[in-house]
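@channel sequence for tomorrow's demo:
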Amino acid sequence: MTKEYSNGEVTIVWKPDLCIHSAICAKGLPKVFQPREKPWIKEQAATSKEIMDQVSKCPSGALSFYINAQKSNNG
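structure tokens (generated this afternoon):
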């Protein structure tokens, strides 16, 4: 299962089966990543750069992202 959360500019991709619950996302950017909430990712709560920087720190690869304009241009 894969879930996507987009702020219009960047899309966060979450693969829960890969998550090791390190909580690096929630500790590093708690205004976006709120594991006790549903939905737990508040993609509008930070800039795209903040989101990309934090998602890049995910140790398991459960979180990734793509820039929407690049995906639509590259298919």
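heads up for whoever presents: The chain is about 25% helix and 20% strand.
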